[in-house]
Amino acid sequence: MKNFIILFGTLFLFSCQSTKKFNQQLTQPIAAKKLQKDVDYSYKKLKQLHPKLYWYISKEKLDYKFDSLKKSIQQPMTGLAFYKELSQVVKNVGQGHLSVSPSLPKSTKKETKALNKKGKSPFSQFDFEYIDNKLIILKNRSRNTILANTEVVSINSEKPSDLISLFSKRIASDGFNTTFINRYLGKYFGAFFNLDKGKVQDSLHLLLKLEGKDSLFVVKRDTFGSNSNQKKPKLSKKERKEKAKFNSKYGFNSDTKTFTRELKFLDKDSITAMISIKQFSNGNYHDFYEDAFNILSVANTKNLIIDLRNNGGGRLNEIADLYSYLTLEPFVFIDDYEVVSKTSFLHMNYFKGSGYVTKFFKILGAPIFYPLFYFKTRKEASGTYLSNRHSKQRKPKPNNFKGKIYVLINGGSFSAASIISSNLKSNQRAFFVGEETGGAYNGTVAAQMPLVQLPNSKVNLRIGLALVSAAGKTNIEGRGIYPDKEILPTLEDRKNNIDPELNWILEDIRREKEVELLIKPKNK
User: Fold this and answer.
1) pLDDT, tens only, 188-212
2) How do residues 26-49 score in pLDDT, each as one tens digit?
3) Cα distance between residue 386 and residue 84, in whole Å
4) Is the pTM here over 0.85, yes or no?
5) Residue 302 has what DSSP assignment?
6) Are 269 and 469 spatial neighbours (Cβ–Cβ below 8 Å)?
7) Residue (of 249, 135, 233) closest to 183 by Cα position
8) Residue 409 near residue 483, CB atoms below 8 Å
9) Which of 498, 473, 497 lies closest to 487 in space, CA to CA?
């Protein structure tokens, strides 16, 4: 026991010292030669792993940009400063999933516990949107009395428009898309602000426009104003189980206290329904879609609206499952993955996010897992490497929806949200309303996305390993799914709680119903 305590104490001290040393390294300037080596290393890893590196830019042009960056580095700089330079070069690849980020300071277990006790970070207390060149607060979870759609004048004395312009130089959309970046940066404004400063902010000075006047709010770490002394109702074992099942089916997000999926009828006779999906990433989607489409079938619903606005994507299995309820014919959902080589998937982060027990079983499964991915990848006569994961033909669900489908999209509809939209669009199964999607029509490089850390600067590259594309294609390269009816909401719409895209669909349904009533008597 004594030896165990000594060993534990030694490991604890080593961990604290290691964390302290790592954090100190982040603030130290790195020699120019070492940074130049990181430039070479980053380009080498992109060539090794990224299957569509020269889709939107020629090899000659990308070679020139990396070479120019390397030559421009003549003085030492921190990893944070290097990230800001490297990201502007990597952006030229034109892949929204390909990202660059600096390493942020680590916390010891003691520090993490203290931070958790203080509550969530300031940015976590708000949802933002960037619209009409203004940053607004969509949702407020702080103790401060701030109404939804309040305009942010400045954050720590910096103008949001200036920051968005700065951040946009460091991220890419898929191809030549023009709607993604502002939507994405608005939604994840806090994350990019933290990356820009090299640390998570513990306090913010928010200057907000309230009733025509600028008002200052200081926001610190907090518990979202919840009353910690308030006792939660005691639930029986059966009630806890039912609640957990419900939360999983609808994709409950414990941070935002919202559900990922929602089904609701928009009229008394259940003729029109709407399914809102914020992301394809959490919970038991299978049960939700099965229940939802059973309900629609029993209700004899004629019109279905699917809201994919600001849906950043997620699981391929989920969108394939959802599509099987929407299509009327047998289908192939996506093409075979295109990868760089037979060993591409061996670079995935197989052990990431696993506890000790899970890692143990993954070690046992590795001799099966890695060869499986290796032998599933084949080389075509053209020299291209393909891997078949989701490309088999599937049948529609027995209770598939047979009525009219509308899909709400915008620049925040990305990745998986764009892939399912591509299929619906190419098969003319839905009518799209909103703005061009942020994700490309002809696919995106994603699937497994390992994190590659550069050895000297500790800057991270997130690299997609496979081209994922819907079976349907368009001749227009590098653009998203265009809406059949383009509608761009304004700041005034937000302030007046008006949803112009949804309102247009409801009016279109009303017009069609009136036409039907006029035609019916003539057919008798």
Assistant:
1) 999 999 999 999 999 999 999 988 8
2) 889 999 999 999 999 999 999 999
3) 34
4) yes
5) -
6) no
7) 135
8) yes
9) 498
